[in-house]
Specification:
This protein is α+β, with helices and mostly antiparallel strands. The chain has 2 domains: 269 residues, FAD/NAD(P)-binding domain; 173 residues, Cholesterol Oxidase, domain 2. The protein has 16 helices and 25 strands. Helix 2 packs parallel to helix 16 and helix 14 crosses helix 15. The protein starts with a helix and ends in a 6-residue tail after the last helix. It binds flavin-adenine dinucleotide and 2-acetamido-2-deoxy-beta-D-glucopyranose (5 copies). One 2-acetamido-2-deoxy-beta-D-glucopyranose (NAG) binds next to loops. It comes from Clohesyomyces aquaticus.
């Protein structure tokens, strides 16, 4: 492939398909063209990969269902993340189940309903005629994916998580020490650390500690958390500046407060694959074509003895996916096709990737047959093994207003049932009790919470299944929370909440202090004077926990090989959070970007195979 030609074709296709989100497609048809690679989805999985392939000189078409919100201040200014999470310009609204137990589902306090007037009702006492939608699960269908509305917490998973993939796949490139290479490649670290970091990558990372955790209340709470983890008060400042993405020996067991590394610039601008992709496209230097508002509906195969992915079909049009709150079922979109000489890479995220695979004939045979989809490869684990970090919180009311509600700090805890540290909590004057349209609920200026993310959940029995063969319909999702290992995971979550409670109880109760705290859940009452049983707390946690870090729905080991190739076909890979065999650490966005970098090498290593 001649690089000059590919650059030229990149220019030509850019000219034909301008980046601007609102550029109207020609009314009746879209040009059907051919590229070396097609990447579906511009999130943390697909975005960096598409750029890397183009930088290597190959022509790449990046298809993204959403539009360009890189100028939307909800998105760009990180402290607006709650606005961006609720912004209809980026939102894809999924409604999921946590189990098949109808009685348990009906007790979920933030159950969401569609009222007769079309609006949402959240709660357990819906108005007459309202339709139960289920448990709200946000995603971002926009250039850059969920990294455009997430909270930007950035954690390299525990070494154990990477090493387990290496062990199970017998592919040493997955070892933690090798994976760190991708972190260093992609990051532009703006903070000082004793450990080696990258400083010229595309993802800005900042440790919020120096700029944010300066309020006396935050300092006092960090001190208590540090003491609870066994540190002396005098060590608090150095403890709270520890680098959670450092290369410490035995880092999996380092506990207590850490610096909050985030994918933001030092002046609080969000950094993400969306901005990166856009900047590379606009530079005009590489043969990368970004086509927005294009919903991929299936992968096209050359059906020989061994099917080879040769392209995709898509629908061009704004807000076509019916999870988009702005969608209108009567807009049908304009059908188009694009062809790939080499490979198609699916990066639609943990809900959409299995949907795209199944619509293309790759999935559990019975399910495909049910919808008359002809089977290209029977792959029983597509849409299975969905897993997520369980999340809960200990929410309380302090005795007075918290002085800087924006000031929060991360804290690791190891429970009696964890092999390694198994709870990542972040504490501050906020309230986060899960997701529903319009989340979160403001409980006033005295609210104080430790939010908990459980790492290494023991159950991964979640499912993503087709609701219909219509590509615009969101799939049916059941996370099957606590199906396996419930006793141990509930014990871990309970101990996590109780650990925060134990140091909240120790807060000095002087005049004008935050303490005593009155807990709202999971154990209502004045902290230190509560009387709920452990069992009742676990029941609360089991029924009210939530999640937003879905992974593993097309995972390495069963659906994919260790190089992200979809088994049973050729020329097709999956590179996004679906690929993780298990939930990576407490926050999946950084690991997903890391595997995007890793997969780029794997794809390029095979580039000469295809003509
Ligand atoms: C509210 C919220 C807050 C979060 N906070 C954090 C956090 O602080 N830290 C953290 O580590 N993680 C966080 N996460 C999770 C993290 O953002 C995701 O795990 C990560 O973005 C997954 O990346 P992905 O590439 O797998 O998928 P996605 O980010 O979902 O990207 C998939 C992309 O594919 C596009 N797409 C899907 N289907 C199609 C199709 N058929 N055709 C064309 N395009 C398609 C989508 O529009 C999207 O742009 C949060 C998630 C949410 C929802
Ligand atoms: C920001 O998001 C809110 C919803 O959270 C929305 O109402 C508002 O219009 C958005 N603002 C911009 C500039 O898009
Ligand atoms: C990093 O350390 C240098 C040298 O001590 C100092 O000048 C700089 O301000 C520090 N940067 C940050 C972000 O703390
Ligand atoms: C592109 O492909 C679509 C879907 O097959 C088809 O409907 C359309 O006519 C094609 N467009 C052109 C310009 O060939
Ligand atoms: C599948 O095809 C059969 C036979 O044509 C038809 O009876 C059935 O309704 C189809 N099912 C779906 C879900 O389209
Ligand atoms: C438990 O505490 C609540 C107030 O927090 C009180 O109303 C209740 O009587 C107590 N129950 C018992 C058995 O002590």
């Amino acid at each position: 492939m001649a690089p000059i030609l590919s650059v030229l074709s990149g220019f030509l296709s850019l000219a034909a398909l301008p980046l601007t989100a609102n550029a109207a497609p020609s009314p009746s048809a879209v040009a059907n063209s051919t590229y070396d690679y097609i990447v579906v989805g511009s999130g943390p999985g697909g975005g960096p990969l598409a750029v890397n392939l183009a930088k290597a000189g190959y022509t790449v078409l990046l298809l993204e269902a959403g539009s360009d919100e890189t100028k939307n201040v909800n998105v760009t200014f990180w402290p607006n993340f709650l606005l961006s999470g609720n912004d209809p310009a980026t939102r894809w609204d999924f409604f999921v189940k946590h189990s098949d137990d109808e009685a348990r589902e009906s007790r979920y306090l933030r159950t969401t309903w569609r009222k007769k007037d079309g609006g949402f009702y959240v709660g357990l006492d819906p108005p007459a005629g309202a339709e139960r939608l289920g448990i709200y699960y946000p995603r971002a269908g926009t250039l850059g994916g969920c990294a455009m509305h997430n909270a930007c917490l950035t954690m390299n998973p525990n070494d154990y998580d990477w090493n387990l993939i290496a062990e199970e796949t017998e592919d040493d490139t997955w070892k933690a020490e090798n994976m760190r290479k991708y972190l260093i490649k992609l990051e532009k670290a703006h903070y000082n650390s004793t450990y080696a970091h990258g400083h010229d990558g595309w993802l800005d990372t900042t440790m919020l500690e120096s700029g944010y955790n300066t309020s006396p209340d935050a300092k006092a709470m960090i001190q208590l958390a540090a003491q609870a983890a066994g540190f002396d008060v005098s060590q608090t400042s150095s403890v709270q500046q520890r680098d959670m993405n450092g290369n410490q020996p035995n880092r999996d067991n380092l506990l207590g407060p850490f610096g909050g590394v985030s994918h933001v610039t030092p002046d609080a601008q969000r950094s993400s694959p969306g901005f990166y992709v856009k900047q590379v496209v606009e530079s005009g230097k590489y043969p990368l074509t970004l086509q927005l508002e294009s919903l991929v509906t299936k992968v096209i195969f050359d059906k020989g003895r061994s099917p080879k992915a040769v392209g995709v079909e898509y629908l061009k049009g704004k807000s076509l996916y019916l999870a988009d709150p702005r969608s209108n079922p009567s807009d049908k979109g304009i059908p188009g096709k694009a062809y790939a000489r080499k490979e198609v890479i699916v990066s639609g995220g943990a809900f959409n990737t299995p949907q795209i695979l199944m619509l293309s004939g790759i999935g559990p045979r019975d399910q495909l047959r049910k919808f008359n989809i002809s089977v290209i490869a029977n792959s029983p684990d597509v849409g299975q093994n969905l897993a997520d970090n369980y999340e809960t919180s200990i929410l309380s009311q302090a005795s007075r207003a918290v002085d800087d509600p924006g000031d929060f700090f991360p804290n690791f805890f190891k429970t009696s049932v964890g092999k390694i540290r198994d709870i990542y909590m972040w504490c501050g004057g906020f309230s986060f009790e899960g997701f529903w349209p319009g989340f979160p609920e403001d409980h006033g200026p005295k609210q104080y919470e430790c939010a908990l993310a459980h790492m290494n959940p023991r159950s991964q029995a979640g499912t993503v299944e087709l609701r219909s063969a219509h590509p615009r319909d969101p799939p049916a999702i059941n996370l099957n929370f606590f199906k396996d290992g419930a006793d141990l995971d509930l014990q871990a979550l309970y101990e996590g909440a109780n650990s925060a409670r134990s140091w909240l109880a120790k807060a000095p109760q002087t005049a004008n202090s935050l303490a005593p705290f009155t807990e709202m859940h999971p154990c209502p009452g004045v902290i230190g004077k509560q009387n709920r049983t452990v069992e009742s707390q676990k029941t609360y946690i089991k029924e009210q926990s939530y999640s937003h870090h879905a992974t593993s729905s097309a995972r390495i080991g069963d659906v994919l090989d260790s190089k992200f190739r979809v088994k049973g076909v050729r020329g097709l890979r999956v590179v996004d959070a679906s690929a993780f065999p298990r939930v990576p650490g407490a926050f999946p966005v950084l690991p997903t970007m890391m595997i995007s970098e890793k997969a780029s090498e794997d794809v390029l290593a095979d580039a000469k195979k295809w003509t």
